[in-house]
Task: inverse folding
């Protein structure tokens, strides 16, 4: 059986399933979508049969022994944690400690559950949702990739020194997942942290307003780098599917192509990375134990390839269709263990 965990609205998952069933109509495939509720989990560890996990969900039962291949695309399980309410302060503290213990136990259970699901071969892992941008920048540099100079701080004096050194800087989220929720009958609220370019005047004004030396919260800052074009790279087990994005002629997308301009879209074309750059990226992905992901890089006017970040669950349908890469077909064949 092939097990796929995804979100209900992920169109790329639908495309991969189309390729699987086109190739092997009788293939046994199970798909679970985001927020599938776990009703029960049991583990068996045996000298004879090794480790196995059985999960009962609102969609049926899953036994790890039946899974040959697992693709973690997106989503999460919903696990019921005991909830308490009480007014006494001391008892509240005790209850919070108990809830914290329950939560940590649940996290270990989920970790072990995925160990069972992934043992037959996998694309991505649930734990990669928690990949660290700061750690990844460090590992990318260690692999020989050039990165932007980066500062994470809550001190205004450090930020001012950094801005003097690099003249133009940007700020981006350290670990902020965008989300949306309904508001009223016909409205949706969407909250995310875009990449923002900061001027010297912005920082000087903030310094005047901020009488304390420290901010309330840490932030990430990087030197702003000019670019000839941006690169979106889909990496799948040593294979590269790369697209060049000509975002610099449009003020809306100049800082970050993800500030999409639907009226005047960026030109996007297939692109071949140098073999040496692919070698460094492969080393980096192996170092962080990630076998699939969407990588953002830039190509500078000086002819340098500069790594920005990797997203294990990034969108790839746009890249696949723009460049005729048929990435969905590549994933389907990997899950089917077919050679292409």
Result:
């Amino acid at each position: 059986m092939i097990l796929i965990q995804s979100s209900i609205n992920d169109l790329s998952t639908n495309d991969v399933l189309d390729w699987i069933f086109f190739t092997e109509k009788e293939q046994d495939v199970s798909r679970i979508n985001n927020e599938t509720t776990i009703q029960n989990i049991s583990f068996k560890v045996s000298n004879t049969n090794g480790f196995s996990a059985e999960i009962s969900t609102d969609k049926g039962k899953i036994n790890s022994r039946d899974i040959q291949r697992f693709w973690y695309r997106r989503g999460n399980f919903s696990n019921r944690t005991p909830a308490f309410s009480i007014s006494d302060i001391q008892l509240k503290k005790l209850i919070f400690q108990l809830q914290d213990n329950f939560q940590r136990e649940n996290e270990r259970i989920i970790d072990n559950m995925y160990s069972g699901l992934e043992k037959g071969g996998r694309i991505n892992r649930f734990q990669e949702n928690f990949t660290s941008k700061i750690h990844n920048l460090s590992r990318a540099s260690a692999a020989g990739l050039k990165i932007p100079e980066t500062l994470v701080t809550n001190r205004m004096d450090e930020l001012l020194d950094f801005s003097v050194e690099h003249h133009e800087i940007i700020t981006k989220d350290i670990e902020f997942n965008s989300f949306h929720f309904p508001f009223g009958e016909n409205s949706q609220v969407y909250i995310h942290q875009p990449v923002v370019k900061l001027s010297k005047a912005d920082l000087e004004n903030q310094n005047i307003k901020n009488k304390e030396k420290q901010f309330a919260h840490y932030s990430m800052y990087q030197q702003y780098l000019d670019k000839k074009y941006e690169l979106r790279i889909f990496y799948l087990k040593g294979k590269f599917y790369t697209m060049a994005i000509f975002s610099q002629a449009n003020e809306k997308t100049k800082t970050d192509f993800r500030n999409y301009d639907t009226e005047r879209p960026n030109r996007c074309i297939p692109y071949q990375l140098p073999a040496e750059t692919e070698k460094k990226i492969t080393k980096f992905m192996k170092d962080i134990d990630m076998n699939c992901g969407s990588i953002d890089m830039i190509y500078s006017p000086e002819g340098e390839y500069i790594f920005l970040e990797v997203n294990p669950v990034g969108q790839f349908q746009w890249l696949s269709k723009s460049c005729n890469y048929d990435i969905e077909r590549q994933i389907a064949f990997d899950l089917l263990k077919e050679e292409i």
The longest helix spans residues 89-118. The chain has a mean pLDDT of 83. The chain is about 30% helix and 30% strand.
